[in-house]
Amino acid sequence: MSMKIRLARGGSKKRPHYSIVATDSRMPRDGRFLEKLGTYNPLLAKDSEDRVKMNIERVQYWLGQGAQPTDRVARFLEAAGVREKTVRNNPKAAVPGKRMTELTAKKAARNAAPAEAAPVEAAADAE
């Protein structure tokens, strides 16, 4: 059985509240879970103590049983000092898409054309 430690969404529309749960990976996101390990309230300030609450002992138990945390839960565990910080690298995230690259090239060409004509006009004005 493949175990996950992940977030289960609760709360009303546009007012999310998440439970940190240990569950079988085949279960739905908000479906059946084995144990509730904590809570996460993204509406609170980032420095608030109540934003993320976890039962660290139970989380370590499930990690010992082979449960894999999702990316967001892994970040919570890194902040709590339970897991080693992993290096994340996505170099393609900052690269603009094809359309934006074309638009940037057109804009650069358009800006370069008046810049070339400007010195000629300035020289004519100087005479």
Explain this structure to me?
This protein has helices at 56-64, 71-80, 98-126; strands at 3-12, 15-24, 35-40, 52-54, 68-69. The protein folds into 2 domains: 3-80, 2-Layer Sandwich (S16 Ribosomal Protein, Chain: A), CATH 3.30.1320.10; 91-126. Helix content is 38%, strand content 24%. The model has no long low-confidence stretch (mean pLDDT 87). The longest helix has 29 residues, at 98-126. By secondary structure, the chain is an alpha+beta fold. A 5-stranded mixed β-sheet has the order 4-3-2-1-5. It has 3 helices and 5 strands, in the order ββββαβαα. β1 (3-12) and β2 (15-24) form a beta hairpin.
Strand order of the biggest β-sheet: 4-3-2-1-5
Uncertain stretches: none
Give me the Rg, rounded. Answer: 26 Å
Q: Look at the structure and give the CATH class of the largest domain.
A: Alpha Beta
* CATH-assigned fold name of the largest domain: S16 Ribosomal Protein, Chain: A
Instruction: Indicate the percent of residues in helices.
Output: 25-40%
Largest beta sheet, briefly?
Answer: 5 strands, mixed
Number of helices: 3
CATH architecture annotation of the largest domain: 2-Layer Sandwich
- Between the first and last Cα atoms, what is the distance in angstroms? 85 Å
CATH superfamily of the largest domain: Ribosomal protein S16
As a percent range, the share of strand residues is 15-25%
Mean pLDDT: 87
**Strand tally:** 5
SS content category? alpha+beta
- Give the overall shape, derived from the CA principal axes: elongated
Q: Order of SSEs, N→C?
A: EEEEHEHH
User: How many domains, as an integer?
Assistant: 2
